[in-house]
Design goal:
Oligomer: single chain
Number of helices: 4
Largest sheet: 4 strands, antiparallel
Helix content: 40-55%
Mean pLDDT: 85
Strand order of the largest sheet: 6-5-8-7
Number of strands: 8
Distance between the termini: 66 Å
Low-confidence stretches: none
Strand content: 25-35%
Radius of gyration: 28 Å
Number of domains: 2
Length: about 150
């Protein structure tokens, strides 16, 4: 074979390899289902982050500030006598504040949700799929679990 023919065959092989590489790049980079994965990850993060933010939110109680987490713990641990916040028991005061937060965020964003902290339950259980955020606390009376489900 002549030297020129060998060079042309080499160039054609390089072009074929580059074409195959471009096809794989287009298939796996540009046509990947990244949006679905991102949406699922974002929804799960919304549940976890929203629950954490709500529990760490401080609300005004009798001219002092107390976190919603502390109100819920007081609600769980109180037997008959609980913290009194502006005329409400810690359970009712926490539920009212949590409702207000969810109305301004999750409901405004169009998300259905279910919140549960012991006897405090807000909304209905999710019927179909859900993303859940859970916070657990060790108390003298046992483990206290607070959960937020964002429904699909």
């Amino acid at each position: 074979m002549a030297k020129a023919q060998i060079e042309i065959i080499g160039l054609m092989l390089i072009l074929i390899l580059l074409s195959l590489g471009m096809l794989f790049a287009i298939k796996y980079v540009f046509l990947s289902p990244a949006k679905e994965i991102k949406a699922e990850y974002t929804e799960k993060n919304i549940a976890e982050n929203m629950l954490y933010a709500v529990l760490e939110t401080d609300v005004e109680c009798n001219n002092n500030y107390i976190s919603i987490k502390d109100l819920l713990i007081d609600c769980k641990e109180s037997v008959g006598v609980s913290l009194n916040c502006n005329g409400y028991s810690s359970c009712n005061f926490a539920k009212e504040n949590i409702n207000q937060i969810f109305k301004k965020t999750l409901e405004k964003w169009g998300n259905k949700y279910y919140f549960q902290a012991d006897t405090i339950k807000i909304n209905e259980l999710c019927v179909s799929g859900k993303k859940t955020g859970i916070q657990s606390f060790n108390l003298a009376t046992g483990i206290f679990e607070i959960s937020l489900e964002i429904c699909d």
